[in-house]
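ingest -> validate -> predict -> emit
validate: passed (alphabet ok, no gaps, 462 aa)
predict: started
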Amino acid sequence: MAIKYIPEPFRIKSVEPLRMLSRDERCRKIKEANYNLFHLRGEDCYIDLLTDSGTNAMSLEQWAGVMRGDEAYAGASSYYKLIDAGKDIFDFGYIQPVHQGRAAEKVVFPLLLGKGKFAISNMFFDTTRAHVELTGARCIDCVVAAAKDPAKRVPFKGNMDVAKLEALIAEHGAENIGLIVMTITNNSAGGQPVSMENMREVAKIARKHKILLDIDAARYAENAFFVQRDEPGYADKSIKDIVREMFSYGDLFTMSAKKDAIVNMGGLIGVKDASSPLVFKIKANCISFEGFYTYGGLSGRDLEALAIGLYEGIDNDYLRYRIGQMEYLASRLDDAGIRYQSPVGGHGVFVDAQAMLPQIPYNEFPGQVLAIELYKEAGIRSCDIGSYMLGNDPDTGKQLHADFEFTRLAIPRRVYTQAHIDIMADALIAIKKRAGDIKRGYRITWEPPILRHFQAFLEPIA
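emit:
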């Protein structure tokens, strides 16, 4: 039986009209988009779950901050508000704004990685993987085994496999590991959280081998909520205190602020030691790639809204509602016997497309098949987190086989209501009833060399 829906801890002050196309129109639109959901127009999607990045609803305080934004090119007051907020929450010596998370990676990764180097993560997301490979380095995923069994309900499935991490360092040599990356929450593994104990163990290994530990911090607040709720010893600690402890184990962080800071544009880089030579290199790259380091590719109004959003994102009432939305949708799927990465993660529900469509092989992209069916069924735009997104081996060019074949329903923050979430569940239930009639998947007819899922063209296999 579905759990009780947690009421929104806010009221709606402004609305944006939505339009539902007919099924025939939706079938025509996805065909015109070459069966790539990124090519659909936003106005043709009734419920848009493509991403939770930058699609969030800002608060009245953030919109007021937009009007207060200082647009000075250098040293704007809005910049200093953001720096003060970042230092207060993360307790890092240096904070650098950038325009989004991949910009942070573009600035930092070339300074630490290169040909012959490796980066090890609990799991790389697509853009992070791409920025590692663009430096000439190679990625190694090192998530715990439990994460690879979506039906297994254990906490902290986003953790790093510390025994495997030690073995990988021994195999490749510590001098060849340019970076260890801890993604919190672990997006590719289903938005699964990382425990404080695991973070502590990984930091100990990194220090022992003198390898820098980078926190990929897009969903730091959701991760802190899971620690507070599920890890012994943290129930009475504030979200802010948990965040500060988690970040105390890292040497630097790269962050898309378009998630847990609840803004439409923005990102951050943090370096724990403000006197580190890395800071000057980051500033230099930022000036080249993003603009002067006191605005980092953002307008003053963006800086202002981000400074406010960092605090709103760590509010307990908001986080309880946020995770509650995921748990409500997950409970409806439980009732219908639909498998997903369980227990449900922080920013979306990752439906196990392989379990729903066992007849579709990985190289016909079951996660993409289910995403397309969701759009046809109810105008819901989602995305594949599986072999289609993973792409080809950068050395051999062969299609990689992902550990998971998920269809991700990434739910924007403070945007959709219970009625919308019921539509998501009803659509998946309807597809499950006819899943056996879906005989084949899709083939790629054109793809770019990197991050193909954003641009590729597909066609149904007859």
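The two ends are 39 Å apart (CA to CA).
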